[in-house]
Design brief:
Elements lengths: L26 H39 L5 H23 L18 H10 L1 H35 L1 H4 L11 H10 L1 H37 L2 H55 L4 H29 L2 H6 L1 H9 L5 E6 L7 H22 L3 E9 L2 E8 L12 H11 L3 E5 L6 E8 L3
Helix pairs in contact: 1-2, 1-4, 1-7, 2-4, 2-7, 4-7, 8-9, 8-13, 11-12, 12-13
Length: 439
């Protein structure tokens, strides 16, 4: 009777450990982490002392002058200086933690008093002040811990290297000195082994201290929740604007079809019907009606082509943005110079939005600007597709509540971009759109 061979059990499934994913000892990574933690903690004494001194001095100065009118601007300037100090601490945290710590500050109001109220009610600025006070003892403690831990471990590890140079007051001769050095070899080796054993302890102690300090910085100087809430609010607004823009576009298409191509096709059908009735009695009149119907059909076809071009120009999909803009400016009412510098083709959504920005801008130039020349620049700046349209017209353009520029703004915002208009009286008018195009 034979028995089946036994096979060692090996876990299989999603919870099975993968040999490639198991953490491996990486001396270089360990060394980089140790140097980063030590650098972060040692720098903390300098930056912490500086920020604490600045915060206490400016807070005392602002409080002392607050009874005077000059105390208000002093407090506002102090708040901005503390904001720079907070940014310095956020940058220091990047030494050991690549995740950015971002602070969300409320923008100033339209006037001086509105800005004062905004600064006074901004909890982010008050937390900056509180952080600079709280972090000082933490930074001093971190500096002391890093210094004592690494100094002890390294001093014991390298003790045999420098022990011979330690001062000796016994006045021994050379032979006695050699005998004493030989006799202390076991002690030197023992101290070196103790130092080597303390290196991981120093690493872990500094690692824990660094994590506590970084988490304190992230807690007091980070606004991840506020940033996410602002992001959600922005996305809700852009989604609403995109829905409104889509609805307005559908109404425009329906209106253009109803008033243009559909009416012309109805006229074609009526002309063909009358021509059919006259074909036997009045062939010449019937031929004229057929000719008129043919011309009307051509005009309807031209309107439908224009309508389709306004929805999605085929040349844009086939040949790209530069070819589409070249075709567009060929029909422009003013002289246009085009400069397109694209390292690679942007995403289709960004291309379409850029095309319509230029199309609407050229339409406005022809209708309202009274311009003689228009310059269009399309390039990529900081991962964004930038479209800049500048004309030498009369200026004083505005983004109205229901105008074409408002629809463009909603279209660009739906792609997480932004549209800005600069149009002083007597020009020039500059329309610039920035659309994220990172693929």
């Amino acid at each position: 009777m034979s028995t089946a061979p036994t096979v060692p059990f090996s876990p299989v499934g999603p919870d099975a450990p993968d040999a490639a994913s198991r953490p491996r000892f990486d001396p270089l990574r360990w060394l980089r982490q140790a140097v980063g933690d030590a650098t972060y903690l040692l720098l903390g004494l300098a930056t912490g002392t500086f920020c604490f001194s600045v915060a206490v001095t400016l807070a005392s100065l602002s409080a002392g002058l607050f009874v005077l009118i000059i105390g208000i601007p002093v407090a506002m300037v102090s708040s901005e200086i503390l904001r720079w100090c907070a940014e310095l601490e956020r940058m220091r945290a990047r030494i050991v933690d690549p995740r950015p710590i971002r602070g969300v500050y409320r923008p100033g109001g339209p006037g001086f008093m509105a800005t004062v109220r905004t600064f006074a009610s901004d909890g982010r600025r008050w937390r900056d002040l509180g952080y600079h006070v709280i972090q000082f003892p933490v930074s001093v403690a971190g500096f002391c811990i890093a210094t004592v831990a690494w100094a002890t471990a390294l001093a014991l590890t390298f003790y045999p290297v420098y022990s011979w140079a330690l001062p000796n007051d016994r006045g021994d001769d050379v032979s006695a000195w050699l005998e004493r050095q030989i006799g202390t070899v076991p002690a030197n080796v023992g101290l070196m082994l103790l130092g080597l054993a303390l290196i991981p302890v120093a690493y872990l102690v500094c690692r824990g201290t660094t994590r506590v300090a970084v988490e304190l910085t992230r807690l007091l100087l980070g606004d991840d929740q506020e940033r996410l809430e602002a992001r959600v609010s922005h996305l809700e607004q852009t989604r609403s604007g995109a829905v409104d823009a889509s609805a307005a576009e559908l109404r425009r298409i329906e209106r253009d079809l109803h008033d243009g191509a559909q009416a012309r096709m109805v006229a074609v059908a009526m002309d063909l019907g009358m021509a059919d009735e006259r074909m036997a009695d009045d062939p010449e009149g019937a031929r004229e009606l057929v000719q008129g119907a043919r011309d009307e059909a051509r005009r309807a076809l031209a309107e439908m082509r224009d309508l389709v071009r306004g929805i999605a120009p085929s040349v844009l999909a086939d040949r790209g943005l530069e070819a589409a803009l070249t075709s567009l400016i060929a029909r422009a009412p003013v002289a246009v110079t085009l400069d397109v510098v694209l390292p690679q083709r942007p995403p289709a959504s960004a291309e379409t939005a850029a095309y319509f920005v230029v199309a609407e801008a050229l339409a406005n130039v022809g209708k309202h600007a009274a311009a003689e020349h228009c310059a269009i620049v399309v390039d990529v700046v900081d991962g964004e597709l930038r479209v800049r349209v500048e004309d030498d017209g009369v200026g004083d353009a505005r983004i109205g509540a229901d105008g074409g520029l408002r629809g463009l703004q909603d279209r660009v915002a739906a792609l997480d971009g932004r549209l800005t208009l600069t149009s002083p009286w007597n020009g020039p008018t500059i329309l610039e759109a920035r659309i994220p195009c990172a693929s």
